[in-house]
Specification:
single chain; mainly alpha
Length: 128
């Protein structure tokens, strides 16, 4: 793949998103607004939420896909997992020693528990 194969590129900045009116009722810095029917696994729309487009072997991802607003890092990783499955590419997350850590949900729960345990008041009473 070289730049000779690229037909076009469309990039947007937060400034561009601010000026666009078709991003949901209010828009958002990172793309489409988070309206109730377009959250989590339904982003950006339920039809495109699995990163596949109606065109075979054409995939889409970015800050507007699930999980959203992570500058595309998590979304791109999730998209690669779909592409790797569809096209039979390497799956490094399945290699010994490179297994994925607990899910983000589990990591958040562990962190929340740790913070809550550290935030508990530690009363020590002195005898007078």
């Amino acid at each position: 793949m070289t730049w000779d194969n690229i037909i076009g590129v469309d990039t947007n900045s937060p400034y561009d998103h601010m000026r666009m009116k078709n991003l949901g009722p209010n828009g958002a810095m990172a793309g489409i607004d988070r309206v109730p029917f377009q959250v989590n696994e339904h982003r950006p729309t339920p039809e495109l939420a699995n990163y596949r487009t109606p065109i075979p072997n054409l995939y889409a991802t970015g800050g507007c896909w699930h999980v959203g607003s992570n500058a595309g890092a998590t979304e791109s990783y999730n998209c690669y997992k779909i592409i790797a499955t569809d096209l039979g590419l390497g799956k490094p997350w399945e290699e010994k020693g490179k297994e994925e850590p607990d899910s983000l949900v589990e990591q958040q729960r562990k962190i929340r528990k740790k913070v809550q345990s550290l935030a508990k008041p530690n009363y020590t009473y002195r005898k007078r």
